[in-house]
């Protein structure tokens, strides 16, 4: 919540400076966390829950509405007062609680900055990686998604190299922050699985084909999505992922953690991913398995430790 | 500014309760002052200037915009949080400065309430009077103007009686708080005069008529409004003032103080009025003279001490 | 329909005078009926059905739309004509039929006023009662709900006293006009019941608890709302009803009639209420039973005969 | 005003049938008059002034606003009532006075239809003529201007033929109803003149050129528009008038009457035109002179008696 | 698609000329086809599929949005450029492919006009017929539906005569283009049937009545719409079809083809109709049966060969 | 115009990718030129005037309207077609003329890229410099102005250093691209001067003070802005320029060229600046003189050749 609060204030400042020509919404990106950590420090959730409005769940809709309305009213002015930012902070304080100048965590007193320091992490070790063809490979660029209000840079590699980086990271014992679109039909959090099934009967073979022959398109889709046996997947190319990004099919990204790798009974590669959506409605207590094809198709970007990048790619990126 | 601040908060509360179906704007009425004095106390302007946004003049436009936007965003909710009011006060604090729980005035420390008490005024002595025919006479009613968000009551008398009350007050040494429409052409603050000139050539007589014979309607109006000699006025009836109220010509009211009475060279009665618009561009250093006809036509209401009402009217009103 | 028609015209007049800063919608309040009866008289539905647009059911949506659009267009003017009100009445006449200057009912010819007189009711005997803490007790105030466009006053008592007044009325043989929010899940018109079930498993005891142990929150709610046996109710306090009013949970009020009192098998007190929603889909032919807790929580106000108020409360109210 | 009232009702009906996809505004066309005369009859202005809203001037703005708002609210319905048209007429009655079923004019009692008959005019003798190249010549078409809500047909001829028809009409003693754009700088009602001056210095010759050499473009324009001597005009072609129609420069049309022809000192042809804008601010008591070039450029259409068309053109039109 | 493309351009031109006061949407009317055929020629779908945007199905929503937005932006100008139309065509080219100046069909090269000529159809043989009482019978008028942007004329006959014309056409071997509202509950494309069932129990008789006695209105409707046996229909009169047109129940028209006539087991007359909605979900492979009552009630208009009209009606129409 | 065209297309692409959350307008920044030169090449204005819409002046308003409307309609889609970009280019072609794949300039045939190469400029030599305190000095950042849609980076130095860089550039014979706010009262293009006069009488001295004693604030301003003698200027600090940027007073930037330096009769330093607004209304044939104070206050950024930066600053910037 500390990151969220910090970004609310930064977003408001940038929104006003840019006369409203950026996204002002609840979402964010990995770079937000990195920047807050770097500049403002960090506070553990136990020490700053940011819940201050008469409930235990973060219902951001009223806060989103009033902050947006407020800054939209500010930018209508010809000349701004010096009070508007103080007023904005007054709203934030009301909904999140006052800024935690100092706090106590496990018996020790911290400021956000001293707590960040105590964690021993160097933000300069972390780097974002993505893979799109509308920018040249091996140079950083700002991914054009509205939530990336912070204009954070990501290095651009081929999708094969991106997979290579992930695999190398896991091997070296690093986890990977994974931003991906989770709106596909094949992403089924409850079933603990995310795949890109090929739903075209003509592409299927053998028993699958026999079993489903004669089904209508909708019936076929329903059958496949039952996931009662391994599905035949689409083979995802660089072009396919680019097209899905260009035509808005890949937009709704969400941050998760890749923590391991596994194979199914047919030897297909899956990544083990930790999600923040709770363990209640989850087949594998908060984890799920994502096929390599899903990762190739729907990854927006990853945030990794520089040291986990294979040397040859590192050199291409000039890191 | 203390009254203004107090009413901002009360107005926001009422606006939200009523789902936006009252006026939310800067304006107000005499009843606002009375109610604030009665319930929250009062603070002299020297002790709480309420200027907190980087200038010395109260430019309310940004404040008006952001507060209105904020509460309009609040009322869009299905279920409100408990934080919204705190957030609203955060805005008000940013623009007015924090609430003056205590303050020092001429060396003495006060709270708003103790200062109000120190003035020795009893708000129950004050009563509002108006004169309209769309409600029965001699009973109080809520004047239907948007600024009267507080739904304050005024006693209804005939316009002749209203003039009688004013005259009686002056005679007894009371001043009168006067709410009136100041948007008429005959209201000329710079020239220190407010009259209701009859601009119909056919109604004029003698030298006036000779002098202006042959002028177009616009030229005639320009000549008359020079006010280089006393003008012939319209005789205002109860019907005329009602019609002007009904058709929106009388809406834009402003609060002033009637402090005396005078006659011009022709014996026409004028009231001496104190205005808050400063002395710079004013013929008579902040005072001006209003004809009885103007008062009859354009008075929205008056606020007076009960004791200044003639006994016979007082009885009709049941006071 | 006569009351509805009368209020359409009054509402339009007030809306225009206030430049649109009141609610203009179909809803209303008890005070509307009282005021129409007092000033314009009354007409039985058989004598003035107000159906004039090619159907037998009152579909107000077109009428609501055109009247609202019409007056919104009127108030955009700087200076109004005298024709607008006649035009408004022309619309009302088209949808309701002409104003019933005279009508015949059971063989006798009446005007609305003479019919009202014939009923022998004195409107001054009726008084509204409510119970909220944002105004002082024992003094009347205007309940801040949009439908209360008429700014009708209600006396404020504690919720215990309000229940006392209802009970006393029933005992003395009076019925009570009851305005309440009917949007709660526990209000089930078809099942003829309205209660405030406690849906928190931890608050339940004995067999209930056993029976429902292991159900998800949604399943539990479904089970409880089957109403196949008496439910454990929330105990409603003054604070709870105030919070529900403040946060918009109690807003959607509807007028009904409390006609009696009853107890269920466990001795819990229920009021017998007559509703206007027809007998077709109703367990008890148009009547239903409301628990005291529901009344405590969701009552907006009641309209009662002064004589039915216990003496001690009457004195507190100065009646 | 009778025509205006009749068209308000017809326009509302058509607007509703077409779900709002026509212009609904105060303007109209010659065909409106012809159609009203043909179907509903006519009433002289003395007998039906249509002024019913507390003034002597037709201020249509409130009426325009409320009628437009009303029908826009009607068409939002999925299924309309039968009452909406009655309500619309109620509004029209309020602003125009009731429909003149019968009226007395110069001592004789008429209905609108009987009065129309008494005038001895046969509407079938009248025909509209225009000249544009986006439709084939010599066939009628609906001129695409929003005011032509009635979809009235005009015969299409070359601009030379249109001038020929006007000249022939005047010669034969007929007047011509002339619809033209009056928003050009060269149209100066006060000066009693309408021309299309050539404002390009390079196109000027002799003394003009000498006199104005060295003036800026704006100064030159000001000098020319003084009209203190005959101006050099643009020679208007068919292409020029088409371009001005296509690019919205010719849109704002107004109905006048061509009553004669004249020559200026240089022999340039002018038409004498009667305008309805009053005689007060008019050089020639309500008449003014329009150059042939202005007529060629800015004529939308004319309405004439068939008999005034030269035979050879008449044959081309199949009349 | 060629017709669709041609009408997009014509509609844009007319919309701009009329400053937006016509419908600009995807729909159209029979007259659109006739006019395109007459003026621009025709191209078979195989030769100009007009699919140019990365899919095989015509998803017009993006095209509709961008073209509407474009022309709405154009008409906001005071003076238009000459470029707007070229820009509009640039959009159309992008979505439909370039204009097919020439194309090859079955080995022969055509222009749209030469192909139209090769078909040997004379558009002057075709005439639209409708039946409404808000215009006089036997004269053509423009049906007031938004899709009829082309202001195409239809001849007006009684509904009995319209049926007579259809029957005569079928008998003579002509098919009939049929425009009708298909939004009725009794229009069931899947079941291959369109009827106007009488859903009022009181109007039913014999076994039906017995069978359904005791059902609620909704249950009754569900039972009847199962269409498991012939239903009792409403007898449709001229007044009923007019009322449905006047109150917006008949608006949503769709073009189909009447190709034959049939009787059901009870001898009721049905028309065999070909629909363009595909054969997949259709009881009778793309055909369905429409009762005469449905045709009487819901026909907007028909387009037929003049020669198929009975002589006596032809004479009334002056054809 | 080639740069303008190139940026229209890039801006549309970015706007669509970002779902509309950047500015889409005619304006731009120095980085736009640099990027177009680098990636697409350049075309001299004589070879590609980009005027294609029936006039000789670039009236961008229609083009701005239609392109904005078009892309706003595109981004409303859930899934985009591949046609939208082609349609956008169709619009651009219509207004600018087709893309100049090749062109002839001074007898030689070029492509945009070959022409760029022929100029012998290396874009990597150019760097943007600015001076604001809301970012750390000596590191590049993206200036938050809406026109900077390209998110171009500028190096941040103190305002003293920025002046030093300008002075060094002029000395070394380089010109400086200067982006500045030109909306100040002291910026008077016609008079060929831009200064920041101190308008506070109390700050003035000697004869000025005597001369203007007694003038009102407005009169004083008028006198000073006559510029008939050198004015006393405000001394601009880093804080003042930051405040003006923060409160929206410095926003409206415009690109010009600093070409030299000069002193006035009092020895005050002025820069000689070339403006693109034409020579007609200009005191010094298209040039004007800007005081150092104006440059300090109102400079948004400069674009310069790296080699013109003093060594010591260059090192701070890491260049």
What's the SSE pattern of chain A? HHHHEEHEEEHEEEHHHEEEHEH
Question: What fraction of the residues of chain A are assigned to beta strands by DSSP?
Answer: 15-25%
Biggest β-sheet of chain A, characterized?
10 strands, mixed
CATH architecture of the largest domain in chain A: Alpha-Beta Complex
Summing up helix and strand content along with how strands pair, one would put the structural category of chain A as alpha+beta
Q: Output the CATH class name of the largest domain in chain A.
A: Alpha Beta
The CATH superfamily of the largest domain in chain A is identified as: Cysteine proteinases
Query: Please, how many helices of chain A?
Result: 11
CATH level 3 topology of the largest domain in chain A = Cathepsin B, Chain A
- End-to-end distance of chain A: 32 Å
Mean pLDDT of chain A: 90
Question: What would the principal axes of the Cα set say about the shape of chain A?
Answer: globular
- Radius of gyration of chain A, CA atoms, in whole angstroms: 22 Å
Parts with pLDDT < 50 across at least 5 consecutive residues of chain A: none
Any idea how many domains of chain A?
2
How many beta-strand runs of chain A?
12
Q: Give the quaternary arrangement of the chains.
A: homohexamer
Helix content of chain A: 25-40%
Strand order of the largest sheet of chain A: 4-5-3-12-6-9-10-11-8-7
Largest interface: A-B, 31 and 31 residues
């Amino acid at each position: 919540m500390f990151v969220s609060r910090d970004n609310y204030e930064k977003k408001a400042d940038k929104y006003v400076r840019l006369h409203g020509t950026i996204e002002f919404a609840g979402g964010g990106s990995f770079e937000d966390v990195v920047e807050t950590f770097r500049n403002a420090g960090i506070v553990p959730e136990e020490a700053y829950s940011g819940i201050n409005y008469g409930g235990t769940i973060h219902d951001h809709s009223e806060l989103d509405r009033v902050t947006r309305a407020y800054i939209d009213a500010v930018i209508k002015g010809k000349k701004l007062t010096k009070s508007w930012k103080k007023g904005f902070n007054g709203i934030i304080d009301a909904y999140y609680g006052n800024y935690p100048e100092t706090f106590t965590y496990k018996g020790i007193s911290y400021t956000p900055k001293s707590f960040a320091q105590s964690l021993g992490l160097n933000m300069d070790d972390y780097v974002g990686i993505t893979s799109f063809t509308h920018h040249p490979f091996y140079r950083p660029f700002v991914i054009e998604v509205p939530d990336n209000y912070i204009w954070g840079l990501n290095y651009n590699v081929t999708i094969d190299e991106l997979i290579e980086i992930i695999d190398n990271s896991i091997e070296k014992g690093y986890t990977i922050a994974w931003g991906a679109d989770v709106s596909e039909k094949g992403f089924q959090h409850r079933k603990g699985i995310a795949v890109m099934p090929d739903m075209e009967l003509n592409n299927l073979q053998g028993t699958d084909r026999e079993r489903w022959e004669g089904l209508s398109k909708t019936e076929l889709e329903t059958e496949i999505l039952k996931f009662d046996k391994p599905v035949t997947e689409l083979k995802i190319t660089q072009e396919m992922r680019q097209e899905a990004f260009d035509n808005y099919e890949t937009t709704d990204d969400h941050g998760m953690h890749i923590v391991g790798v596994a194979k199914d009974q047919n030897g297909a590669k899956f990544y083990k991913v930790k999600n923040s959506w709770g363990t209640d409605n989850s087949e594998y207590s908060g984890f799920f398995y994502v096929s390599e094809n899903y990762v190739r198709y729907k990854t927006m970007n990853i945030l990794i430790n520089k040291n986990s990048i294979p040397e040859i790619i590192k050199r291409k990126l000039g890191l």
